[in-house]
Amino acid sequence: MEAALEETFALLDATVNEWNPESHASQLNASPAGVPFPLSRPLCDVLGVSAAVNRALEGKFDPTIGVLSAAWTAALEAG
User: Fold this and answer.
1) What are the DSSP E strand ranges found in the chain?
2) With pLDDT > 90 as the criterion, what percentage of the chain qualifies?
3) Cβ of 24: how many Cβ atoms within 10 Å?
4) 47: burial class by Cβ within 10 Å (0-12, 13-18, 19+)?
């Protein structure tokens, strides 16, 4: 059980952790606009599920929380 949890957290860290500059999501966010970016299967799956949930909830779930996340980070850094 512990190994499975560690594997799951490692996958999440490598895929969607925006504070990990090596994560797939961070690399996508850092890539230039308009330049094709090869999505990893895990990130593609996360984005697909997020889009499906967004549609099912008629926009009440928005995975594009970049502005909120940036404000949170700025507040943490400011103390």
Assistant:
1) none
2) 70
3) 22
4) middle
